[in-house]
Design goal:
The complex is a heterotrimer of chains A (about 160), B (about 260) and C (about 120). Chain A has about 160 residues and is of the alpha+beta class. Chain A contains 5 helices and 5 strands.
Chain lengths: ~160, ~260, ~120
C-alpha cells in the first residue's frame, strides 16, 4: 500500500468513561509497536495516552453522552497526540492551565496531595511540548508532542518501509 | 465538616433517576434524616437512586446501615441504590465494612446514569477507529474490538468471533481499496446489551469492487479451499459468524456492515 | 472487565505480621479499587508489613501510583511498612520522574526488601 510510512495518522473516538481507557491505550501502543516504534518509546507514549485520556474523561466530560476523540499523528521527527473533549467547568480549565504552564524539575518531590494533577505532570515529563486550547463552545483540545530522535526512533520508519 | 445536608433532585439526563446528594457527616445523628429521605423518594414512586457522596466527610457504621436499609427498600420496590463520587477515605471505609460488595460504585454521576441507561434503556456505546489502509494496523484494531466486547459482558467466544469479523472485514477493506489510496479506513463499533454492530468504510476501487460483488453473491456456502477463493473465504467466514451482513457500494466508498448478536 | 491485574499472596518466613503480594499485569484507574480492597484486607488482618513484588507488574499510571502512596501511608500509620521490590525500568522511570522515590520504599530485589523488615 502507498501510505506514507513517515507521516500518517490514526484516531480513536470513545464514550467518556474511564473503563474504556485501557483498551484505547493498548490500541495505541500495539499500533506503534506494529509500526516498529521502539518498545520504550511505545511504553512512554502509552502512559501519555492513558494520562491525557484520564484527564479528558475525569475533567472534560460533563454531559451523559460526552465523547472523547484521540488523534495520533505520526511525523518523521515526532508524534503528536491530540485529545478533544467537550470541556469541563471553569475550575477544571484553570487547573489545566496551571498544570500545563508549571515546569517542576524532574525527580523533585511532589505534593502528593494534589493527585488530580499528577497525571499531567507525568505527561509533561515524558513529552516535549504540551499545549491546550478552548473553543468558544468550551470544546477543549490538549496537544502533546513527543520527539522521536531522543528515543532512537529514526530507524523505525526505515524498517517499516522495508517491511 | 459537620451537620448533614441532603438534597434530592431528578437527573436531567434521565428523569427516572433520583440523585440523592449528601453533604457533611453521615453519622449516628443523621440516621433519622437519611431514613426520611429514602421514605420520601419511595413515596414519590421513584425507585432508581444515585447517591452523590462527593460531599461526605465522615461515614459511621450506623449511617451506612441506614443507607443499606434504604437500598433494601428500593430493591423491594424494583429499584436500586448505587453510590457515586466517593473519596478515597470513604471508599476505604466502605471496603473495610464489606459494603463494596453490596453497592455498585461509580466514579461519578455520569457513569452511574450511563450504567442505568445501558441496563434498562438499551443504550449503545459507539467507538470509532480510523487507520491508514495498511494491513499492519488491523491486529490492534481487532484486539481493540475484542477487549471492548469482553468489557461489555460478551463471552470469550463472542469476543473472539467479533474479533474475527472485524479482522476479516478490515483486511478486505484494505485489500480492495485502490492501490494509491491514502484515505483512512473507518471502523465503527456500536455495542449494546444485545448486539454489536460493526461498520467498516473505505475508499472503493471500481475494478476490485466488481470482484467483490461477484464474491459476495456466491459466498453463501462454507468456504471451499481453493487458491482462487482465498479472499472470498474471509467474507464467507464473516457471513457464518455474524447474524447479518450487508454491503453498500458506491464510487465514493464501500461500507460493510455486520451484526453479531450476543450469545445467551 | 477491568484492565487485568492479579494479586498473589504468600507468607513471609519468620514475620507473622508480613505478607508478600505479587502484582501481575497493569495497575491503572480501572482496577485500583480491586487492589485497594485486597491490600486493605491484609492490613486489617494484622499484616501491617507488606512486600510488593513488582516483577510481573508491566504498567502503572498516576492513579496506580496514588494508591501505592496510600498503602505506604496507611501501613506506616499502623506501625508497619509497604516495601516494593523488582520494579521494571519503565515503572521505575514513572516513579522517579514524579519524585515519589523518597516517598516509597523501593528495593532491587525481594531479598533486600525482606532483610529490611524489622
Amino acid at each position: 500500500m502507498a501510505i506514507d510510512t513517515a507521516n500518517y495518522q490514526f484516531c480513536v473516538k470513545f464514550p467518556g468513561s474511564l473503563e474504556y481507557i485501557p483498551a484505547v491505550r493498548k490500541f495505541v501502543s500495539e499500533t506503534l509497536l506494529a509500526n516498529n516504534f521502539d518498545p520504550k518509546f511505545t511504553y512512554r507514549s502509552e502512559i501519555i495516552v492513558d494520562e491525557i485520556c484520564n484527564n479528558a474523561v475525569s475533567f472534560g466530560c460533563v454531559s451523559v453522552d460526552a465523547v472523547v476523540e484521540l488523534q495520533c499523528m505520526v511525523h518523521g521527527d515526532r508524534i503528536e497526540f491530540e485529545i478533544k473533549d467537550e470541556g469541563g467547568k471553569p475550575d477544571d480549565l484553570k487547573r489545566l492551565t496551571e498544570a500545563v504552564k508549571k515546569r517542576p524539575r524532574k525527580g523533585s518531590p511532589r505534593d502528593m496531595g494534589k493527585k488530580d494533577s499528577l497525571g499531567l505532570e507525568i505527561v509533561r515529563m515524558l513529552s516535549d511540548q504540551i499545549t491546550f486550547e478552548t473553543a468558544a463552545n468550551n470544546l477543549t483540545t490538549v496537544r502533546v508532542v513527543k520527539l522521536r530522535e531522543e528515543d532512537g526512533e529514526a530507524e523505525g520508519d526505515e524498517a517499516a518501509a522495508a517491511g | 465538616m459537620g451537620q448533614l445536608r441532603i438534597e434530592v433532585t431528578q437527573s436531567e439526563a434521565a428523569p427516572e433517576i433520583t440523585v440523592l446528594r449528601f453533604e457533611g457527616d453521615l453519622d449516628n445523628a443523621s440516621i433519622r434524616n437519611i431514613g426520611s429521605s429514602f421514605q420520601l423518594i419511595i413515596e414519590k414512586n421513584s425507585t432508581y437512586v444515585v447517591a452523590d457522596m462527593s460531599g461526605v466527610s465522615m461515614l459511621s457504621s450506623a449511617a451506612l446501615g441506614e443507607i443499606m436499609g434504604g437500598r433494601k427498600a428500593l430493591v423491594e420496590h424494583g429499584g436500586d441504590l448505587v453510590l457515586a463520587c466517593l473519596s478515597l477515605p470513604i471508599k476505604t471505609k466502605l471496603t473495610l465494612l464489606g459494603a463494596n460488595r453490596i453497592f455498585r460504585l461509580h466514579s461519578d454521576i455520569r457513569s452511574a446514569i450511563n450504567a442505568y441507561k445501558w441496563e434498562f434503556e438499551g443504550k449503545s456505546e459507539v467507538f470509532t477507529l480510523s487507520m491508514p489502509p495498511a494491513l499492519r494496523f488491523v491486529p490492534s484494531a481487532r484486539q481493540f474490538a475484542s477487549r471492548l466486547a469482553g468489557l461489555k459482558g460478551y463471552s470469550r467466544r463472542d469476543a473472539f468471533r467479533i474479533e474475527t469479523i472485524v479482522d476479516e472485514i478490515c483486511n478486505n477493506a484494505i485489500e480492495h481499496a485502490p492501490a494509491d489510496s491514502k484515505r483512512n479506513v473507518a471502523l465503527t463499533l456500536s455495542i449494546d446489551r444485545r448486539k454489536v454492530e460493526i461498520n467498516v468504510i473505505n475508499a472503493s476501487d471500481p475494478v476490485k469492487l466488481e470482484t467483490l460483488r461477484r464474491m459476495l453473491s456466491g459466498a453463501k456456502e462454507p468456504p471451499q479451499p481453493t487458491i482462487e477463493d482465498r479472499r472470498g473465504r474471509g467474507l464467507a467466514l464473516v457471513k457464518l459468524l455474524s447474524n447479518g451482513l450487508d454491503i453498500d457500494f458506491s464510487e465514493q466508498g464501500t461500507r460493510v456492515h455486520a451484526t453479531k448478536l450476543k450469545e445467551e | 472487565m477491568d484492565s487485568q491485574i492479579k494479586l498473589e499472596f504468600e507468607d513471609v518466613k519468620d514475620h507473622r505480621d508480613a505478607k508478600l503480594v505479587r502484582f501481575i499485569g497493569d495497575l491503572d484507574a480501572t482496577n485500583v479499587e480491586t487492589v485497594l480492597e485486597k491490600v486493605f484486607a491484609l492490613l486489617c488482618d494484622g499484616y501491617v508489613n507488606i512486600i510488593a513484588d513488582f516483577g510481573k507488574l508491566r504498567y502503572v499510571n498516576s492513579t496506580g501510583l496514588g494508591i501505592l502512596l496510600h498503602f505506604s501511608k496507611s501501613a506506616q500509620e499502623k506501625g508497619g511498612s509497604f516495601k516494593i521490590a523488582n520494579v521494571n525500568e519503565n515503572v521505575y522511570e514513572i516513579i522517579e520522574i514524579i519524585g515519589a522515590m523518597s516517598l516509597l520504599q523501593i528495593y532491587d530485589n525481594l531479598e533486600e526488601a525482606m532483610a529490611a523488615l524489622k
